[in-house]
Amino acid sequence: MSANPPEHYSDPFEQSAVYRMARNQLRDAARHLDNIDPGIIARLEVPKRSMMVSVPVRMDDGSTRMFTGYRVQHSITSGASKGGLRYAPSVDLGEVAALAMWMSWKCGIMGLPFGGAKGGIAVDTAQISASEKQRLTRRFTDEILTIIGPRIDVMAPDMGTDEQTMAWIYDTYSMKVGYACPEIVTGKPVELGGCVGRREATGRGVTYCIEMAAEEYKLPLNGATAVVQGYGNVGSVTCEELHKRGVKVIAVGDRYAAVFNPKGLDIPALYRHVYENRDNPLKTVDGFPGGEKLPLADLLTLKCDVLIPAAMERVLTEEIAQKVNCRIIAEGANGPTTMKADTVLNEKGVFIIPDVLCNAGGVTVSYFEWVQDLAQFMWDEDRVNSELRKQMAKAYKRVRAKATEKNISMRTAALVIGVEKVAREKAMRGLYP
């Protein structure tokens, strides 16, 4: 099944390769759905609401600089829209729309009462100060105030943002409405109503998926090798969790450099080098003494058991996929594999744990945080981790069963589950008016 928007509809996202990929994935998944109105698929191909705002910021030197911010709400059918806020130079409307769409499927796969959303500001955080970042965040929050709320749209950290960013949004929103409203964001500091284990949730979810795939493929994790692209929140936690299980993380890379040690990197030492080294303002793996420098172009094609792309979209291209030499790919990032690369990897017999399943731990624990804030009753970390493991296992088994039943890839199976949930809810609610 496939559907196209009406001829008079002008798609403002079409120029984005990331958005086209997300849309084409939706169309591919729709072919495997039964008794779904093509009109509903057409509605799902475009976001429910998109906002683009100019964000003027007074810089530290007294000048005023203009930034462009975005918030896209793909679906509100299942509940409030939910998704991260990204600060990166590459951010544009199409990228944010694609990420919002993927979040809808992710929430559907995990059975969460959310629709998908995403936000972003085109900015290089390495080039602005902490005070400039705070002013940028607060002004952006004020600009999109009319479309966010704890029952409307709830933000969370993403690339270039963190707990402190969420605290600024929480405070700005609360000042506007006149009362403390911690449920407006997730991923905020524990002291402000954040959930213990939220920062580590995405990386832990990736690791739980790797455990299940390794068990299925009879790959002992103790002594297995892994390569991780990206050493931000997701990549660093995944490295730590794999290291605890005896996995040898032989290479790690970020936007600046990559380091390699065939005997396995000292992960605790690498973490200290990146995040506790005062002489490392860019927070990069570059210069880590426990490994040799590796060309970034070679990182994704190193021989290993498990490859974890945990950085940007579309890094595994068709050309790189031809050279990939691993047994399992666990997608910690959103959309790291192009559709042509997907075909190549499936033909090579590489087992892919798709992003909409693999990195869903973050939004799952964000849901836990939102629920706790609404109830004003907080959980301990053991309960958070136990519930996360349970939900990831249920979702993984559901996707695996669907893939086996229909003889399709894990990615297609995951998308079918996510899309079908949202599509059937739309069908039951009907089209207003």
Features:
single chain, 433 residues, alpha/beta, Rossmann fold, seven-stranded mixed sheet, five-stranded mixed sheet, 14 helices, 16% strand
End-to-end CA span: 26 Å
What is the overall number of helices?
Answer: 14
The SS-based structural class is alpha/beta
Mean pLDDT: 96
Described by strand count, sense and barrel closure, the largest sheet is: 7 strands, mixed
Question: Which range does the strand content fall in?
Answer: 15-25%
Count of individual beta strands:
12
H-E order: HHEEEHEHEHHEHEEHEEHEHEHHHH
Roughly what percent helix? 40-55%
Name the CATH superfamily assignment of the domain at 199-358. NAD(P)-binding Rossmann-like Domain
Strand order of the largest sheet: 9-8-7-6-10-11-12
- Any guess at the CATH architecture of the domain at 199-358? 3-Layer(aba) Sandwich
Overall spatial form: globular
| Cα radius of gyration in angstroms | 21 Å
Low-confidence stretches: none
